[in-house]
Design goal:
The protein has 110 residues and is mainly alpha-helical. Helices cover 73% and strands 0% of the residues. It has 5 helices and no strands. The longest helix is centred in the middle third of the chain and has 27 residues. It is elongated.
Length: 110
């Protein structure tokens, strides 16, 4: 039997939270796509792209939602607990969109 010696190329980018979540999703739910990406050598490029895209989208959405809801540094100075609650709510809402649209979507990277 000939067993291929497949190695992944060295990467400088440390895959973050969303890249790891995408990796787990592909491995558990899209096994054929996952195997194909490993064999093509495109898996870590894809994970890096998804991670960067998700982080950028989170930053944009949190900034936009803060502006829409009027969450300012003045509120932070005046009522820290209200500011923390509002920011947690904004981050969770933004993360729901990011996870649905990029991490757990089949269309990412096509």
């Amino acid at each position: 039997y000939f067993i291929p010696d497949i190695e992944l190329p060295e990467r400088n980018y440390e895959i973050g939270k969303y890249g790891r979540m995408r990796h787990r999703y592909l491995k558990e739910h899209r096994k054929i796509q996952y195997t194909t990406m490993i064999l093509d050598g495109t898996l870590y490029d894809h994970l890096e792209e998804v991670d960067q895209l998700c982080n950028e989208r989170m930053e944009i959405m949190v900034t936009s939602m803060k502006k829409q809801q009027g969450i300012t540094e003045e509120l932070k100075a005046k009522d820290q607990m209200a500011w923390v609650g509002a920011m947690n709510n904004i981050r969770h809402s933004a993360e729901e969109f990011v996870l649905r649209d990029f991490v757990y979507s089949m269309e990412v990277g096509k």
